Each structure stands twice: as structure tokens, then as C-alpha cells.
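quick one
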Amino acid sequence: MTLSALQDKITNKEATVAIIGLGYVGLPVACMFAKAGFKTLGVDIDQARVDKINQGINPIEGIEPGLSELVQSVTETQNLTCTTDYAMLADADVITISVQTPVDSDHQPRYEHLKSALTTLGNVLSADTLVIIESTLSPGTMTRIVQPTLEASSGLQAGTDFYLGHCPERVMPGRLLHNIQMMNRVIGGLTPEIAKVMTTFYQQIVQGDLDTTDVLTAELVKTTENAYRDVQIAFANEVAQICEDVGADVWELRQLVNKSPGRNMLYPGAGVGGHCIPKDPWLLISSATHSTPSLIPTARAVNASMPQHVLHLTENALSKHGIALKDAKIVALGYAYLENSDDTRNSPSEAFVQVTRSAGAEVCIHDPYVPAYQQSLDDMVHNADALVILVAHDMYKTLDWQSLLSTMRTTIIVDSRNVIDALPATIEADFVRLGSQK
Ligand code: SAJ
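structure w/ SAJ:
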């Protein structure tokens, strides 16, 4: 089948779509193509996950507006069926791959999952199929790893026998369906003709801009946009510490700086978590061969040091009351990596709890969204010395501080996310705000 014939099949919704990897990226994409009227096959190695979805149950934790209802409806109509059997991919016309692409402790990309999916797919790949990688990749991976792996395992030639492209995902937990529909996407085709057909494919579910380019540029866009954000956050964190040194307030400073045209200083905080920002900068610089990036790794180090900095602020406050960390009881408020989310991946709170416990302190964890930490906050604060706000959950903006502080042994509050504008004057507490001496 020629590319234009494939394009017609997509336009007529006669193309069979297959999605490999039914996680927080793949599953919503599979549901949206099924909802758009395509016969859609979901493929995953996890039989339990496949069974759950085929029963119409959404396996993804957390608050994802519309997703559970969509999983139920597209499985009821059988537009979406899921399997662990890769052989069924032989009938697909367009196949996307959304498997995890982590980095290891040396910050190097780990492509085991991707290579395994590619090899298994290659063994059953039919000619004229369009294969699109949605996983985030270090620049150069498409031509260095993806294309040769598929060609070796299928015996087919990319670009002529089958078609290949990269369209990096831009999802955000809590807004999965919305982001897939509304976010602009970069379409990287092995050839411009393939990029054109990819555009027709994504037009079926995406309302944002679809910008075509080559596969290398598409790999660079995703890793660069997240490295950019990480550097921006690190800048805010570094300025926050300078403000602490000189006795200024970074939150006021940020507002005034951003009144200057072309400035957009982000927010300092207890650190940077999540599935992409801590990882993607490393994917980007892992492709640097002759250059030696220093700004991007330094920004990573600044952000990774913030949990320790919050412990430093807490330790200082405790020492003013003659309390050593090893004798202190501390309540950590917030364990998710992001406000009003239950997602704890790479959470800075995890780092804070680890360093604080290793300093000998007793640490209780509270988080209204994370099932393991939803016990009573009133009980937790009893006899505590410090409450440390690590995540800007809405719930923490309306706490009854009078009541909470009344049962504490020492009344220290450390706010690393500028959650509290100002404590009522009637409240006696030693209040520490990250980035401010006020
Ligand atoms: N954070 C700060 N200060 C800030 C912004 C974020 O400390 O000013 C921290 C957050 O607390 C969190 C981490 O950084 O721990 C990441 O926050 P995020 O707002 O970047 O949320 P993510 O990790 O879900 O980022 C995703 C990214 N999207 C994709 O990778 C497709 C990112 O590129 C988007 O900019 C972000 O969503 C978004 O704003 O939607």
C-alpha cells in the first residue's frame, strides 16, 4: 500500500490503529482513536492491565477527568480491544509505541523496554505499516536505535517497506485527555511524505497545531522544552536562596521582575518531581558528544538540592528552640510531586523525608491525595515540633492553624511553596518561608 493509500484509509477511518504501551500516555491515545471511530488494538505486556481495560475498567490511578467513562464506552462498543499478543499487530495499519524511556543512576537513557517492544513488533511487522514512537527519546535515538532495530527484526526497509516517525507525547497527569486533544504536537517524519501522513493521523484526535519536521528535531523539541523548564525552575530556586541571604522576599521579587517585558521567572520550591522534568534534561545532554553541557546539569543539581535546603531551613528553625534534628518530630505536608495530584513519581517530598529521617528526626507524612498518607493531620501534629509544607495542595491553604498549633510541642511552620500568605496575627508561631526572611 502506498503512503497516499494509507492516508486515504486514515481519512476514511478504515485504518486499524494499534497502541503499544497502555500507560498514562498510550491508554488515553487508544481511547481517543477508538472514540474517533477507528478499530483500535491496545497492546501491553501486563496481562492484568489488559484484562482490566477489556472489562471497561480504567487502570490509571488519580483524577483524570473523563478517562474512566471513555475506557468503559470504547470497550463496550468494542472499538477498543486489548491484548498481550503482539501477533495481532500484523493487521494494524498505524502503530504507536508509548513505553517508558527512563534514565539510570548515571543519567544515561535505558532503552530496554523500547528495544524489547521494537524487536517483538519487528517480528510481526507487515509491510506498508506506519510506526510512530511517542516515547521521549534522546536526540539521535530514532536513527541510531529505533530504525535499525525495526529493520533488523522485520527484514523490511524503513521509508520504503514500512513508514517511521516520532511524535513525542506532551501529556500531564490530571489533564491526560485534555492535553492529548488540545496541546500542539511536533510531527517528526523519516521523510516529509511520512510526516504528511502522520499529520492526517493525528488530525483525527488533536485540535492543537501539528508542526511537521524531521525525526531528530522532534526528539530535540521534547527534551529541550523540558530542559528549558528545569533550568527556569533552577534559576528561581537559586535566586530564592540569594533572597534568604540578603533578607528579601523572592515571591515579591518574582512578581516585580515579571512586570518587566519578556520575563517569566517561575516559582522556587522544595524541588522538581514528576515523570519528565527530572529525566528529559539528561536525555537531551546524553547526546552531546563534543560539547560538554554545564548549565543543564547544574540546573538539575540545584533543583535536586532543594529538599536538602528545606531541611536546612527546618534545622535552623529547630535550633533556635534548642532542638536537634535527632530529637525532633516533623510533619511533612504533601507527598505528591505536584499540587492537587496523587502522582508521587520522583517526588521531592520523598527526598526530603529520606534526608530528614537519615538525620535522625521522626517524620510523619500527610497527603490528602496519596492513599498511604491520608491519616488525620490533627493526630499527626500532636507533639510535633515543625510542620513543613512541601506541596501546594489546595487543602493546605485553608488549614485551621490555631487548632493545629495548639497541640504541637514547638510551633514551627516551614512553607516551601508560598502556600500561606500570612498567618493571623493572633497566632504564635515561628514561621519560615522559603526564599524569604519575612
Ligand atoms: N515546579 C516548580 N516550580 C515551577 C514549576 C514547577 O518547582 O515554577 C515543580 C513542580 O512542583 C513539580 C515539577 O516542578 O514538582 C514539575 O512540574 P510541572 O509543572 O513541570 O509538571 P509536569 O512535570 O507534569 O510537566 C509537564 C511537562 N509536560 C510534558 O512533559 C509533556 C512540562 O513540559 C509542561 O510544561 C508541564 O507539564 C505543564 O506545564 O503542563
